[in-house]
Every structure is written in C-alpha cells, then in structure tokens.
Fold this sequence. Notes:
By secondary structure, this protein is α/β, with parallel strands linked by helices. The chain has helices at residues 3-10, 16-26, 31-49, 54-75, 77-85, 107-113, 148-160, 206-219, 228-240, 261-271, 381-384, 419-432; strands at residues 128-131, 141-144, 171-174, 188-191, 196-199, 223-226, 251-254, 275-279, 288-289, 297-299, 304-309, 318-325, 336-344, 358-363, 370-372, 378-380, 394-403, 406-413, 438-443, 458-460. Helix 3 (31-49) packs across helix 7 and helix 4 (54-75) crosses helix 5 (77-85). It is globular.
Amino acid sequence: xxxxxxxxxxxxxxxxxxxxxxxxxxxxxxxxxxxxxxxxxxxxxxxxxxxxxxxxxxxxxxxxxxxxxxxxxxxxxxxxxxxxxxxxxxxxxxxxxxxxxxxxxxxxxxxxxxxxxxxxxxxxxxxxxxxxxxxxxxxxxxxxxxxxxxxxxxxxxxxxxxxxxxxxxxxxxxxxxxxxxxxxxxxxxxxxxxxxxxxxxxxxxxxxxxxxxxxxxxxxxxxxxxxxxxxxxxxxxxxxxxxxxxxxxxxxxxxxxxxxxxxxxxxxxxxxxxxxxxxxxxxxxxxxxxxxxxxxxxxxxxxxxxxxxxxxxxxxxxxxxxxxxxxxxxxxxxxxxxxxxxxxxxxxxxxxxxxxxxxxxxxxxxxxxxxxxxxxxxxxxxxxxxxxxxxxxxxxxxxxxxxxxxxxxxxxxxxxxxxxxxxxxxxxxxxxxxxxxxxxxxxxxxxxxxxxxxxxxxxxxxxxxxx
Length: 467
C-alpha cells in the first residue's frame, strides 16, 4: 500500500496539528513511495508514449481493445449473453476498427444488469462502488478496481503537467469537497499535508469570500482547482475588492462543468492566467484535456477508446461520446453511451505534436444550473456531487426552486423506493449545503424530457445573476 492510500483511508482521523507536522515527513518520501506503483508505472508509460508516431500508438490501442473485448466475453456473463443474442463472432474482432460489430450499452442497461456485468475474477466486496453524479437526474452505479484511483490520477497529472502543475503543487480547491472535520474555520481549511486550501463553495457569501481571499494571500496556492461556476463567483468578488487579490496564480484547472467562453475570458482577465480544462466522467472510459498550444481536447488513447455516435449508433463527426474503457476489467464497459455530446476537431493536427484525436469541447450533462441558499449564495448542481447509493432507487428526479432557500425535489421512484430513501436523500442534500437549503420531496409518476429530447435537472424560477 502506498503512503497515499494510508493517508486517504485515515485522513479524517488526523487532527489538524498532526497533518501539519506530518507534512514535513511525508514529503521526505520519494514520489514512487508516496503515490505507489499504479501511479508511477502509468505516468512513466504516458511520458514514454506521448509523442510516439500514430501507428505505434494505434498498435497499443488495438492490443488493449482486443484484450478487453476477449477478456469480457470470457469472464463477464452479461456480455457473453448479449453478444450471442446479437450474433457477434468474437474471433472476427481483431482490432479497434471492428468495434462497430459490437452493440452499444447505456445507463438503463447497466442499472438493470449490474450483477451480471462484474467479472467472475472479482468479488463486489473487493471493489469500489461509485455512482455517476446524477446531473442528468438519472444516476447509475458501477464497480471499479481500487487501483483505478491512482491510475487515473496519473492521467490527470500528466494532462495538468502541460501548464506546469506537478503532483506536489499547491492548489486552491473550489469544488464540492467535504472539508476536514477538525477545521477551525467552518468555511475553509488549509491542509499542509495535501498542500490544499479548501474553501466551502456552498456558502460563497461576501463575508466568506473575503476570508477566502485573505487565506489565499496567506498560503499562496499555485493553482486554482475547481468548478467554473465557483471560480467565476470568486473572480467576480475579486474584481470589486479593494486592491484586488494580492497573489498571482500559475494557472486555473477547471473541472466537472462545461466552460463557457465568456466565463473563461472573464476569469482569465481577473486572474491573469490561463483557464485549462479537461473532460472526464465517473465511468472512467474517456479522458481528454487541453494542451499548452491549443484549447482542443486531446483524447488520451491508452485510457479508453472514444467514438461519437448518432441516435442510430452510427459513427459521426458530431454525436454522443461513447466510450470503451481500458482500465477496469472488473466491470468492463464496452461501447457505453455517456449522454455527453461533442464533435471531432476539423483539423486534428495540433502544433503540440501529440498525434491524439481531438474533441471540440463537450456539452450535454454539464449545465451551469444554480440553486440559491437562504443567504442568497449560489450553489451549483455539480457542487452537490451526487455520488451516493441513496439514489439507486430513483429513476429520475428534478429540482424546482421558486423560493430562496427552499427546493422541491420531484422523484420518479423504482419499485424498491421507500420513505427511508426519501429521508436519506434529504439528509444527504441538506448536509451538503450546511442546512441552508430546505429540500422537500414529492413522488411523481413521470418526468418527461423537453421537446428537443433533452432533460434539465434544475428548473430555476428565481432570477440568477452573477453581478
């Protein structure tokens, strides 16, 4: 076990003074001990293959694809049955160009057949159970290997290294992260062990924002890491703050929300550094990030295979991101439709020299939807970070707000839903927002999609303004 896993598993048990004392010892260990084998081997591979000729990378992709497909048929009951029903000749699947011979899967299929989608070489008790964020109002759960956390972190750090961010770089955290239980200030916490200044984005009042600015000037984090909606609120406050912010960041790492151009322009103007974003999802099938030369999303080829499909499942230059993951044979997802939309860049040749496929932005699940708490502070849907088993018994939900600090949650239940689920969900939400939004639940028979086929989880009937 790496030092990282030990710290992660025991983090909340450490008092603040111990974290501060341990930091000097922790950083005496070399990176390969602190982050472990999975992280270091993956990062080494990415550095070795980053600028290989496309033909060489394609060979590795084909090997990984072929292994995953053949492994899946051998060890996962659901795929054996599904492929037999579709008449798939597995021997004919020789490389990734044969992927169109395989049927796609979606969230509903996974939800209905999850027990049959786990490899017979793994026990569910030995795996992580995670759920999608539920930002479409339709969350679904998956089982993943424990090692995937550090493998993915290597990909993230590899992408972020393009603007100088390293594993040991200090960061201002502006996302839906639970603050350390032993914090002195209820709205912020500086962790010298992780080199993170975490700020509460559920209560971005003027008073708290001023505290955040003072803490930033004291601890001087190198990068901002968080949701764009929260970063914009901070930038807006700084734009009117007397003297601005007396600290210079090296870059901004925007995650989990679609970055609008007007947001990016405003934030870059206020902070004087580049906003750098990447695409990923809980299923861990496709990851893509911008580079130091452009804003194109470079798809990491060894992480998973990315297709863009139309409604009929045909490959197109613009369509739904459909992923085949290479990292998680414990519960493989092959040709999984994510619900996110994108388009291939017209010119795939980036001046950075990486021969990667490039996406022209991402849209779909990432909405800039906001709720308003009882103090008038904004809370983004992404900040609620709905990764919880409590939502397993819900088919779909919608959040409606007509009154400041009060939200009605409409729920379409499945057959296993009970009053206990409703109480758990309300408790989970209200803990997330520190009790500053009251959530009421109403069960309904259906929540139809809009006339354009899209579904928005938040129906905000109050005026929203960042001014």
